[in-house]
Amino acid sequence: MTNTAAEPTTHDRHATSAPSPAPGPGFRDLPRLIALMAGDEKHAPAAHSTLDALWVLYNRVLRVTPDTVDDPERDRFLLSKGHGPMAYYAVLAAHGFFDEGLLPGFGAYDSPLGHHPDRMLVPGAEVGSGSLGHGLPIAVGTALGLRARGLTDPRVWVLIGDAELDEGSNHEAIAHAGPAGLDQLHTLVIDNASATHGWPGGIASRFTAAGWAAETVDGRDHDALYAAFTTPHPGRPLAVVARVAPKS
Predict the structure, then answer these.
(1) H or E element: which one contains 157?
(2) Per-residue pLDDT tens over the stretch 159-199
């Protein structure tokens, strides 16, 4: 896996540079941060499958910081794959959204860091999640809401697992977003071969058939992820399928 420090480049009006991250823990610190979250966590593999993609998003793409979590012009990130939040918590802590001292309490009764993220308790979380099939429909509604308010610069990102595509609610969201031209919407699919159903041509074909732009990349290659995340897609939503080892 790679971890470059190259500055982002502007590809289109929705791909302006993310703010430079404040000095703090780097990518190599993430295993240490995750290790602080001890306990009987059966979804650890689900967390690790998202680690590289989350890091690239928060470090190089998303325009949101601990100081702008309430700014109407911020980018929105929704973790639909909320049943494996440890990597998400580690990345948020590394970027200063909350103190890493909260991590050892993960899953405890009095901890804000639950086994599913709670937007009312976790600084930086946009949505409470964990129920499969909810995140993408919520992201579609968020993008529609931004459009209705005349906020055309904020981008909406949602991370889903490939198994979530077994849920019909996601297919309704995909079918609506393409014809609606929701180019503020970006869906990141972590593909670890967990889905029950498949599509001729792979997961990306499900999105392109509905009018989306789509890219398929190695989910551990930081440069490939960044290039896919910043692919121009005027007038269309973007799906990025990030392939990782099966069931990882």
Answers:
(1) strand 156-161
(2) 999 988 888 899 999 999 999 999 999 999 999 887 766 67
The secondary element (H helix, E strand) that includes residue 142 is helix 135-148
Q: What is the 3-state secondary structure (H, E, C) of 186-241?
A: EEEEEECCCCCCCCCCCHHHHHHCCCCEEEEEECCCHHHHHHHHCCCCCCCCEEEE
The secondary element (H helix, E strand) that includes residue 76 is strand 76-79
Is 86 within 8 Å of 35 (Cβ atoms)?
no
CA 161 to chain centre: 10
The CA-CA-CA angle for residues 232, 2, 156, to 5°, reads: 35
Tokens representing residue 209 in the block: 């058939």
* Residues 212-243: tens digit of each pLDDT: 999 999 999 999 999 999 999 999 999 999 99
Q: Which amino acid is at 236?
A: R
CA distance 95 to 56: 12
User: Two tokens at 23?
Assistant: 């000095």
